[in-house]
UniProtKB/TrEMBL annotation:
Gene: NSUN7
Classification via PROSITE patterns: SAM_MT_RSMB_NOP
Pfam families: Methyltr_RsmB-F, NSUN5_fdxn-like
Keyword Nucleotide-binding: no
Family the UniProt entry places it in: Belongs to the class I-like SAM-binding methyltransferase superfamily. RsmB/NOP family.
Residue span of region Disordered: 540-638
Any one biological process term the GO annotation gives: methylation
Domain (SAM-dependent MTase RsmB/NOP-type): residue spans on this chain: 198-512
Record has Signal as a keyword: no
One Gene Ontology MF term: methyltransferase activity
Organism phylogeny: Eukaryota, Metazoa, Chordata, Craniata, Vertebrata
UniProt cross-references to PANTHER family, sorted A to Z: METHYLTRANSFERASE NSUN7-RELATED (PTHR14663:SF2)
Protein name per the record: Methyltransferase NSUN7 isoform X1
């Protein structure tokens, strides 16, 4: 197939410089990777079918250059594989090989030109992609021969390209060595941009996240099974390389494992039987946000879920509810049997697939009238994740994402197109009148795809009369660190790409509460009684009690019109009765022990007197002073007396109070001063320095040392002003 005019000349050439450069390339590459020192097995190559599929993927994502810079032409005709394998591991190997060749496309093309393969050999354009991916694997194996299994099917194109590369082995190794020396790099890995190298390092050490399928097993049973297999439960896995696992802080049903345990875990029954499912944490955060917004019988609409594991996780979280999950975006009817089989294996039951695009679904669709929450996972740039191959395989994303990752970012033109699609889908989700919340989640780090889309949709939303508008709500997920709290100050939930997690953006939009739809307690109880939830409970009594309370509240203003003079008359009668009761000293002495009990029982009906920390609420003081004498010129504390306007004087119920007798004489010449005992319930009043009320004919003592006159009541002779 290859027309080579000087292939034998190059293969027989014995050049000392080329041999030395080839040895340098082999030794430097081995030292930089350190694979031999760690005891890991050497790479032996891939099956022929993997090379073919990787070549077809690379052909669709290869970086096109301007005509004046084109070194190698890639055809448009794909290679025909022997069979289309559906094995996920097979696809993963093909995508990883194509992505690696894409990152080193410029270097590999330079090596092919420098080694005179293309000038000396006529190669069909549709085989250029196959040469690139096989050359990358050839140098990654340190230009060693590929190990071929006896039961593997061979492909003619792969065998011919492999023979060509083996014949130019020395030239290729020397060209690679010169390129490394020119760029002062230990290996071609160090020639990559720093952003790509950091991304690869994160991808190799990022922990594994797996959610528990509660349809098949409980978390306690998972912990017990892992413990039997030698796994220990810890709080953090950052600094531990042993067989350990931890429970995620945001999602209670998500477990975290170290990255090096993936192959060991995939061989356990927990993963083979779909009891544990590997998935990126951002998708678990999305479904848990939806779960926090649901009622028992609310339906859910999932849009652009990508991975069917996301749908299954949502179904597992609503296992105890009567919710139904609608999934849109499945274009092919042929996929439906496979999906149904997958959901049956996982135990999911409440899923219905809509075979149409979300943008074409009418908001008044009768099937979606009970949908209250919409989960929107739009197609995004995905620059917040570390392993694009896993993201493409799990989320069924376009392979064009690999091209953006190999360049370290998304072109501005493509980013603008993605943002417009996201805005269109979000505004369409907000038009569903029955829905009450929309959860918007991406794996992007660009504000153009995150905050800008949400704010624009809220600003230009259709504010109809029949439905309440949407508003931005705080995150419904727990914030587990100060950094998360700081990143969520504007009501957006963000997780930046780090050593333990990929990047994630999440926003919750909820409708504003309609004032006309506020439900009273009486309505809630009536609905509960109609459903039979209040058996044996009578609601009529509660309504009668409410009516009595309303009557008591409305009767208070009538009491405010009572004449204040009647209260003063009762006070005077009370004092006269107490004076007559205390004329006999012997009778008074016998009642000393019973007075506190009588006091407490009589004061009981009045709530104003019962509270000792609010003595100023007693209405007797201002009413007494207003009709007898002008107030004393001292400042009363503001928290004792609550001043009322004269035209709104409220008279409370009179209370009969017994004051305990205390011995005189007074110790102060200033007369009676206000004093409130801390441990008794008393009413008090204040009078002028020299004037007593008219119904007390005995004047007060004015000088220290004066003897009390005989006509003073015995009550005043023995009382040390407890009411003042």
């Amino acid at each position: 197939m290859f027309n080579s005019t000087s292939e034998l000349q190059f293969s027989n050439e014995k050049n000392t410089e080329l041999s030395q450069l080839a040895s340098l390339a082999l030794s430097g590459d081995a030292a930089s990777r350190g694979k031999n020192s760690t005891g890991l097995p050497e790479k032996t190559g891939y099956p022929d079918s993997v090379y073919v599929m990787a070549a077809n993927v690379f052909q669709g994502i290869q970086i096109e250059k301007s005509p004046d810079r084109v070194l190698i032409k890639y055809g448009n005709e794909p290679l025909r594989p022997l069979s289309k394998s559906k094995d996920e591991s097979f696809q993963r190997l093909s995508y990883e090989l194509a992505f690696s060749a894409l990152k080193y496309q410029d270097i590999l093309e330079t090596i092919l030109i420098d080694s005179y393969i293309f000038p000396s050999t006529t190669i069909p354009d549709h085989l250029s992609s196959l040469i690139i991916v096989m050359l990358y694997d050839f140098q990654d194996r340190k230009f060693q021969a590929r190990f071929l299994s006896d039961n593997e099917d061979s492909i003619t194109e792969v065998q011919e390209v492999e023979n060509l590369l083996n014949s130019f082995k020395t030239k290729l190794a020397a060209s690679l060595a010169r390129y490394r020396i020119k760029h002062d790099a230990l290996s071609i890995y160090h020639i990559l941009p720093e952003t790509i190298r950091k991304q690869e390092l994160r991808a190799s050490t990022l922990p594994l996240y797996a959610w528990i399928n509660t349809y098949k097993i409980s978390p306690e049973e998972v912990y017990h099974s892992l413990k039997e297999k030698g796994y220990n439960k810890v709080k953090s896995i950052l600094h531990i390389d042993d067989k350990v696992f931890a429970v995620d802080q945001h999602c209670y049903d998500v477990l975290i494992f170290p990255s090096h345990l993936k192959s060991d875990l995939l061989n356990t029954d927990l993963f083979k039987d779909y009891k544990l499912i590997f998935q990126d944490k951002s998708r678990s955060l999305a479904v848990h946000s939806v779960k926090a917004l649901l009622n028992m019988d609310d339906d859910i609409l999932l849009v652009n879920t990508g991975s069917w594991y996301t749908v299954a996780h949502m179904s597992a979280l609503t296992n105890n509810n009567s919710s139904k999950i609608f999934v849109c975006g499945v274009q092919s009817q042929a996929k439906h049997p496979d999906l149904k089989n997958l959901f049956t294996k996982m135990g999911c039951k409440n899923i219905e697939i809509l075979h149409q695009a979300f943008i074409n679904i009418e908001s008044k669709d009768n099937r979606l009238q009970k949908v209250k929450v919409i989960l929107l996972l739009p197609r995004c740039s995905g620059l917040g994740i570390s392993n694009p191959v896993e993201f493409i395989l799990n989320e069924h994303e376009d392979t064009g994402l690999l091209k953006d990752f190999s360049q370290g970012g998304t072109p501005e033109s493509k980013l603008h197109v993605l943002a417009e699609q996201q805005y269109e889908q979000l505004t369409h989700a907000m038009r569903f009148t029955k829905a009450q919340a929309v959860v918007y989640c991406t794996c992007s780090v660009y504000p153009e795809e995150n905050e800008a889309v949400v704010k624009k949709a809220l600003e230009f939303q259709d504010r109809g009369i029949k439905v309440q508008p949407y508003r931005l709500s705080p995150p419904v997920l727990p914030l587990c660190s100060l950094k998360e709290i700081h990143l969520s100050t504007d009501k957006f939930f963000r997780m930046e790409p780090s050593a333990i997690t990929n990047g994630c953006f999440l926003s919750v939009l909820t409708r504003e509460r309609d004032p006309s739809e506020t439900v009273s307690v009486k309505d809630v109880l009536a609905r509960a009684a109609a459903k039979g939830l209040l058996d044996g409970i009578e609601l009529g009594k509660s309504s009668k009690q409410e009516k009595k309370k309303k009557k008591s509240k409305t009767s208070l203003p009538k009491a405010s019109t009572t004449d204040g003079n009647s209260i003063q008359m009762k006070i005077a009668e009370f004092l006269n009765r107490e004076t007559n009761a205390n004329t006999n000293w012997s009778e008074t002495s016998t009642t000393k022990t019973s007075l506190p009990q009588k006091n407490t029982t009589q004061v009981g009906p009045s709530s104003q007197v019962r509270k000792t920390n609010k003595p100023a609420t007693n209405p007797l003081v201002p009413a007494f002073m207003k009709n007898t004498a002008p107030p004393r010129p001292y400042e009363r504390p503001t928290h004792f007396v609550r001043h009322r306007p004269e035209d709104r004087m409220v008279a409370l119920k009179p209370v009969e109070i017994v004051l305990p007798p205390v011995m005189l004489p007074f110790s102060s010449p200033q007369g009676i001063r206000p004093q409130i005992p801390a441990q008794h319930f008393y009413c008090h009043w204040a009078g002028p320095k020299t004037v007593m009320p008219s119904y007390l004919t005995t004047p007060l003592l004015s000088r220290k040392g004066d003897k009390p006159k005989e006509n003073l009541p015995s009550f005043l002779l023995r009382c040390r002003r407890p009411w003042l």
